[in-house]
Amino acid sequence: MESIEFSVKNGVGKITLNRPDVLNSFNMPMAKEMITALDECINNKSIRAVLITGAGRAFCAGQDLAAAIAPGADIKVIVQQQYNPIITKIRNMEKPIVCAVNGVAAGAGANLAIACDIVLAAASSSFIQAFSKIGLVPDSGGTFFLPRLVGLQRATALMMLGDKVTAQQALEFGMIYKVLPDDTLMAEAEKMTEHLAQMPTKGLGLTKKLLNASMHNNLNQQLDMEGELQAAAAKTVDHGEGVKAFLEKRKPAFKGE
Ligand code: T3D
């Protein structure tokens, strides 16, 4: 892979967007590599949690604007073949995904970050719904996730004005989970993702499935689904191990099964 780095260690699949000269903005080759890496995270049983971050001073500046206006470029194809599969794979992967936002996250980069399960941000990082500034509409699931995270009024203002949101503001708005000092972000993100990878990951995957469904289900549908997936969780090896370890007063050894 040339535009991303991908590694697997301690149960964690780590994806690093790696085009720092253009602030890790997406062109088609980078998107294709990211899709391949996400597929590996989905299919490889030894990967039990995923970490997404960026190389250099930015997280991701969204679409590579030079690539977007290159001869033959078709925006509909770009959205359908780059961003939609990435966001769908992130949401449908039944494994926890941590995003470590190491610098500016703009356009599709901002929406990629907030599609992840747990977002940690460096204190100096920022989020910009940059689309409106170049006459585009937000994509990459932004119009789905942002109003649900911060409310319709704030999402509308951020998406129309394209204002820069600091990491601290993003935390106060409910867009992200934690702000960390720049120099400890990566170590903390790796520690959290490795911890998640040792947890009962089948159950975490089912939790994610429930949270996805809660975006459109009514209460009765959600209660039914909770019953169904609780029954599935109760049949996992990890549930048996968790209860046994509790009763034996020892640390559980979860396998993600
Ligand atoms: O196909 C489609 O268009 C549909 C899909 C749309 C999805 C989208 O994401 S649309 C939104 C696209 N992104 C943007 O509009 C953001 C553009 N970038 C910026 O506004 C700024 O770069 C930032 C606010 C992110 C950071 O500003 P700053 O001052 O820290 O850095 P800079 O100097 O602007 O950028 C550094 C370099 O990265 C620079 O190149 P140079 O001068 O060193 O050779 C700059 O051109 C390059 N760069 C930054 N963003 C992009 C980019 N090159 C290509 N595409 C970019 N998006």
Describe the structure.
This protein has 11 helices and 10 strands. It has 257 residues and is an alpha/beta fold. The strands form 2 sheets. It has a 6-stranded mixed beta sheet with strand order 1-2-3-5-7-10, sandwiched between helices. The longest helix is centred in the N-terminal third of the chain and has 18 residues, at 75-92. The protein is globular and about 60 Å long. The model has no long low-confidence stretch (mean pLDDT 98).
Describe the structure using short key phrases.
257 residues; alpha/beta; four-stranded mixed beta sheet; globular; binds ligand T3D
Low-confidence stretches: none
How many structural units, i.e. domains?
A: 2
Distinct helical segment count:
11
3D shape: globular
- CATH top level assignment of the largest domain: Alpha Beta
Helix-strand makeup class: alpha/beta
Q: How many E-type strands?
A: 10
Helix and strand arrangement:
Blueprint: E1 4-9, E2 12-17, H1 28-43, E3 49-54, E4 58-60, H2 65-68, H3 75-92, E5 97-101, E6 104-106, H4 108-115, E7 118-122, E8 126-128, H5 142-150, H6 152-161, E9 164-166, H7 167-173, E10 178-180, H8 185-197, H9 201-214, H10 219-234, H11 237-247
Parallel strand pairs: 2-3, 3-5, 4-6, 5-7, 6-8, 7-10
Antiparallel strand pairs: 1-2, 8-9
Helix pairs in contact: 1-3, 5-6, 9-10
The structure holds ligand T3D.
Ligand T3D binds next to helix 2, helix 3 and strand 6.
